[in-house]
Queue: 3 jobs
Job 1
Amino acid sequence: MDEINLVDHPFKREMAARAGTATHGFDRAYFDDPESLTGFRGYGEDGNSAEGKRDFRAEALEVVAALRALPPGDGTGREVLDIGCAKGFLVRHLRELGVDAWGSDVSAYAIESAPDSVKPYVRVAPIHAIDARYRVIHVCGVMIYLTVSEIREALRRFANAGAEALVSYEPTLEKLEAWWDARDEGAFDPLRKQELPAETWQALFVDGGWHPDSRGFWMRRS
């Protein structure tokens, strides 16, 4: 499966200059520098300059719906893991809704910036370092930072960790092109390793043992 070279891909907007922009990873410049040409340019609970408005409460309710769609559990393990939790806003809303929610992110800066009430439940960890059994894994906009082989391995690890459902939406190549063309200074992200067409994402999930249900969740194939 070929990976997409974002710099050489024929987008309408010139991307080469942004590809050369210095970046130090998922640090303050990536999350909160308003002058940055990459990243979020201010990651807050109500959204950010790059992505626009976000409603973490609505996202939390969607995760709750995925959890409720599962058969009764055996009482072991935890309920939800938010991989790529950033500053832990989703984790906070989930816990306020009574969900046993936890989070992980590769960014030490983001975890340190989490609300104090959330800090005991979030940690710095890569995508493959799952520390317990979780019934639902929320992983959105995270696997775009992986190679295809890493995506395949992550999907296998999710199943091995006991996850029964994934709530996962990755930006497709089609949506990305439309998004960049709609914004004067769209946030090109040189940390992303690839963007894939919608059918390729679906094939990766299916090959990894997950199948879509009618509600849009990915359920582990038994």
Job 2
Amino acid sequence: MRVAIPLFQGRVSPYFGASDEVIIAEMRGGSWKEEVYSLKAQTPMELAWELLGFGVEVVVCGGIQNYCKEWLIQKGIKLVDNQKGAIKPLLRRLLGEENPRKGGGHHGKRL
């Protein structure tokens, strides 16, 4: 699984599109590796396109515009929105210790 989290000052970006960096975590050789990338996107939709180009399967973010959310879902990307805070605890929850709930009307279904 390849997970992208847009960053703002080293934390989950509170607003999708207000980010100039993204952390991408993925399973490699039995362990999770993380790398931070600079983003070129100037708008939320450009960010959605850029994340698609990274080949991510899951996007974790704070608030997100409905049109970006729907577009990502249509492209087959799972979305875990309405998240906030530090990256490490969030990644630990994502990696199975305690999965975060999906936001945005998914009625508490888990990843």
Job 3
Amino acid sequence: METEQPNQYNPIRFSWNSIPTSKSSLDTTGIPFGCVYTPLKELRSQEQILNYQPCLCPNCKGIINPFSTIDPQSKTWICPLCKQRAPLPLNYTKIDQNNVPAELSPENTTVEYLIEENENPVPPVYFFVVDVCCTEKQHQQLKNLLLQTLACIPNNALVGFISFGTIISVHEVYFEETPHISIFNGTKVYTAEELKKFLKINPISTGIPNRFIAPLKDAEQMLNTIIDQLNPDPYPIPKGNRVKRCTGAAIHMAVGIIEATFPKTGGHVIVFSGGPITHGPGAMAELERIKNVRQLSDISKSKLTEESLKFFTELGNRANSSNISVNYIAASFEETGFHEVEPLVTATGGFHTIGEGWADADLIETVVRYFQREAPYSGSEAIVTINGSSHLNVTGMIGCGIANPPVNNFFSINNKVGLSGTDQWRIVGLRRGTSLGIFLDSKGGVNGEKCFIQLLCRYRYFVTGKTHLRVTTAAVSFDDNLSSQLTGFNQEAGISLLGRLAMFKIRSETVRKVIDEVDSSIVEFCKKYAPGANFNQNTIGIPQLIFYLRRLKVFTGQNTTPDLTASIRCTFNILDPNDSALLLVPILRRYCLGKEVEEMPLSQDSLDPQWILVLTCFSRVVVCCGRDVASWRNQNIHEQPGHEDLKLILEKSQADAKNFADLRFPAPQFIVCDQDSSLSRYLLTAVNPPPLQLEAKKSANSLDTDSGDYGSFVDRLRQLSK
């Protein structure tokens, strides 16, 4: 059976849909074999949601799917994963051409089973952890953001509130008489059992109102009062010192309170951080300002960073096991410590956004979009399991979550990548766009033979509390014909996997070595499939994707910080292939008098004084008016009769740019500028990226060039791949 879904609805995209019959040949393709899997990708139709239990193979526990062979006469079916025959359940015995269950329909390679109705589901839980170490102006901006955030939360959601600075303040949000604030030392951490005792917390199942986590409809007035009366940290700051900020202890406490209150269902911690962690567990900066916050050049020698990473990694594993995701929102000109906090966010499937101030429009919009667009469609307590044909196994996953013990013996013992040695992963916070990079290996097969994988995602729908099981089944063909292999190649998925692999290796290997491995991979790919760098439709984007991948700040270390590189890595590792490509290669569109909108090459030649250019990046959208267009606009020529075409391109460029920005999460920075203005630097950087400068000795297959421009890069690739 042949099935193919449009990318809009297809939750799984393989780098290679046709692979060589031998493992040795697969190892020389240059691009990793695997898939990018988006568990909660939008379904094509409501008929894919099934309100009954799935039919399981008694041998391998695979679930019946469109690739299954049905034998109505013997009332049996053959599982495509293990090739074993099994009896059909009674509800399948009346199958014929006019009566095909949805899960067997060729177009339904993904279906979702509603497998558990929770009669008393716990509503969404949000626990705010708020940094009060800031100036009066910043503090007021933060309070405004918190009030906006509360307005986006559904009334049935349960909400808690902690503020922190030198100390931790746990606020009562539900009370009968006078509300209290419980104060804790910012240098200590407490277990869930200790917090139960100190705060007299009752698990929510007892029916006794909880003073620290309550429904928003009951606590909204109190929360508004708490925010209104929230003051900056009152403790004096000695001259030459940084403020004491106990971010690590505060997050640890929020996790403990949720564990004590909801020991099974968990919740979301929302952290608002305004500066470096200087106090208590997880500290990554010294109090004395004379001691600089760690930078990329010295971070490997930072004892504080080493200890902080260990603290947040352990907290991430604990939070994951308790179904608690941690989301991190930072606003500061200084490093806030996301480099150290990133293992916690990644392990729990949280989101993050980093800005310079609490009034930044893109930061505010990201928070609003999270609660209005993302949270209502998200899942929690997700368990992702992979199974498949005996020809294949999984070498690991790079994305988010933690590894669970294996369940299907579908994992590789020798080859390991990312979260490996298993075929199951646990992800607490799963958004619609969260994508996992799953790396596969082949044991070899017969030419023309198909092999299959099946991905199961069991999750609790965050809003309703119902448990769903999403099942996706896909096929890969064995084919030694190079043309067939190339036809089944997906360049966006391939580069997404290659990029994840490079970012995974950069943690333990030198940049020079990682870049040389990337270069060797692409040269190997081109020698086999595009000699002399002669690319076809399936590979035309490869040179540009690699050119920009090599120039990511994760690898160049130029004009970046540990927090920013951690943010890029954390973001890239959960993007689907299309967004991965956009993060690497921006899209440049030209708006010109008398002509249709046209996509332009990322080159200095695309700059013209009579054009409007719209640059769409993953984290930024730039509208730049050419010098002449800006002059005409400033003279209001576009408002004069006969110049409607000028008015049209001015309005259309802005409208299109806003539409691009509106679709994204996190919300991108939106910039409107003129040619030669200071803000036009964002456009110039994209069309003329800085060259990769590495001092260490390069390999023979290195794609480094003296000029560093794209044309020289392609020439070098063409030379090496002959």
